[in-house]
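Table S2 (text version). Query chain:
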Amino acid sequence: MKLIIINGPNLNLLGKREPEIYGSQTFEDFFKELQLKFKKLELSYYQSNIEGEIIDKLHEVGFDYDGIILNAAAYTHTSVGIGDAVKGINTPVVEVHISNIHAREEFRSHSYIAPNAQGVLVGFGLKGYELALQSFL
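Corresponding structure-token output:
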């Protein structure tokens, strides 16, 4: 099974950025743990701070992969383009957020991705990515 995790803006700062919200582990270290735990999966990871690059990656993998785990971060609440890209591809997408976006600023409660996602996981920390992986199994 071929799965990809796509992370959006500022998630390259995990481990440094607001550890009280996002924790102290880098995503790269966490991803290595996922690869060890899910050895039978073909698991890849992509991160970009640029909206168009995320859209391009969704177009690239959205017809060949078995699943996409997408944390579009702040673009979740602003990007009609990413929402449309998710709608336009065949590969199922699970939207993940490390924090509980509904317990934060009001604007974070709206997602342009959720209406076209297979499911949404929020507030479970990095464990949300693992839960999303398990949802594809």
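Notes on Table S2: Residues 2-136 form a domain with the Rossmann fold fold (CATH 3.40.50.9100). Residues 8 and 72 are 4 Å apart (CA to CA).
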